[in-house]
Amino acid sequence: MSFHGGCSSAQPVVDKFLALLRRCVSTKTLQQVHSQMLVNSLDKHNFLLPKLVDVKDFNYASLFFSHIPKPNEYTYNIMIRGLTTTWKKYDIALNLYYKMKILGLKPDNFTYPFLFISCANLLALDHGRLAHSMILRCGLNFDDHTSHSLITMYAQCGDVGYARQVFDEITEKDLVSWNSMIAGYSKMGFAGDAVDLFQKMKDEGFHPNEMTLVSVLGACGDLGDLNMGRSLECFVEENNIAVNSYIGSALISMFSKSGDVSSAKRVFDEMKKKDVITWNAMITGYAQNGLSNEAIQLFNSMKTAGLKPNKITLVGVLSACASIGSLELGKYICAYASENGLLNEVYVATALIDMYAKCGSVDDAFAIFQTMPEKNKVSWNAMISALAFHGRAEESLSLFTRMEKEGRVSPDDITFVAVLSACVHAGLVNEGKRLFNLMSTSFGLVPKVEHYSCMVDLLARSGRLNEAWDLIGKMPGKPDEVLLGALLGACQKFKNTDVGEKAMKLLLTIEASNSGNYIISSKMYANLRRWDDSAKMRVLMKEQGVAKTPGCSWIEVDGRLHEFHAGICFNSLYSEEIYKVIELLIDEMKIEGYNPNVSLL
Prior knowledge:
Elements: H1 10-23, H2 27-39, H3 45-54, H4 58-66, H5 73-86, H6 90-102, H7 112-122, H8 125-138, H9 144-156, H10 160-168, H11 175-187, H12 191-203, H13 210-223, H14 226-238, H15 245-257, H16 261-270, H17 276-288, H18 292-304, H19 311-324, H20 327-339, H21 346-358, H22 362-371, H23 377-389, H24 393-406, H25 413-426, H26 429-443, H27 449-461, H28 465-473, H29 481-494, H30 497-510, H31 515-527, H32 531-543, E1 552-557, E2 560-565, H33 575-591
Antiparallel strand pairs: 1-2
């Protein structure tokens, strides 16, 4: 490819090169055209740079941009747009904006929409507010694109009130205006506001499109509003709207979150084209509803269909593995994540920590945690909780101290539930009290029922039952069945009928169908030889029609999970092998000196 010409033929040559540029669809052809432009001394960077963005070659575009002698506002705008929408390099886009201002160039309505999108994704609210004030100070007119990106920025950064203010100030709202605000409400957890605004939008005479439906279906799922969700599905059918990946996935998620898994599966089965997003929605839906085996089976079907699982797929399947203790499949997912460069993804790594911990492999969980290049609050909480709930209290508290010292992430409610649970397991009453007070004094957190439950459990296990009962009286809300159940169990252990009867009366009013409450109460009276009262509890249990719930466990053989209940015999291909393993375990337990505790039976 070559073009040569003197001054008289310069314009035809330029036109030919620009025509070639428009036809370029790859970096290779673009490089050939660029090299010929250099040979012919044609400096048309404002035409070449947009094409580099179109072919998505970040390195080439960055190098080319850095060699432009005096880039103008147009050039900066093209690069900021590419960084934001094509390459998702939001931090570089923000830096370019400030460099543009330093050079004395004036950002305009082609700059700010992409700047606000970058701020939204960086959660850089301060930078977004500063840019907003610059627009007002310079007297720039707010066009639709700028207003819509402002709404998105404020909403994603958590300032939904200011997003609504920007929305309300738009004099002539179009469908994108409504969609921006509805999406902001839906994504930030203001589901009720999203639905209300959707109703107002319809009253104003606007017809919802795909983006509207996806946002409102998400809000319906969060609210568990099946009626509205179904009406939206009818709207899709009546208006012949194609159930593509986005609409289909939104419907599947809505039905799943609302507990209607069969409708979610119906939508999934009816979709002619299913991409990874669709499969992920259904796998996650199964996992969220406790249908772990179905989630795992669908994951296997997804692989058979030739689709490549991504990080969202892995998180959903790992959640299912954690629920049923499928360590073998969990390890396979870990290996898959490592081979495909997903192990450093913070959500995948955190899901692995949770899976390993719930399957009993705490050391494997800690190994994943240690190798994580980036740890968020959920990662820290998952690991601290794993150590606490496996009785490794000192390690859990040590990790909490490390979290405090590093200072990158602040503890939250979940963190304190974990460390207080660690204190419960280790019987560290004074440390538990210190941490409980630390919540409000150092971190401004208000203790919730879960934290009071831990403290009551901690005090009760140490025999401080009256102190535990007094703490219940100081709670901001009513005690729940978990808290009262822990206290009642301690009263039975320490033979304290005074506090035990108080707890029992409260407990039977809020959880009358739990057989354990009656049995513990009956045993508490029996320990004190109050046989009539003991018998009354058994009679009351029978009168209320309450039956003891049988225990349930799983065992994994050759990658297949077998569920069994107490008192029910196995009836499977592996029955003989399973019984042999159980007998060996019983023998080993006896050698270790274990004696079953039948006092609560």
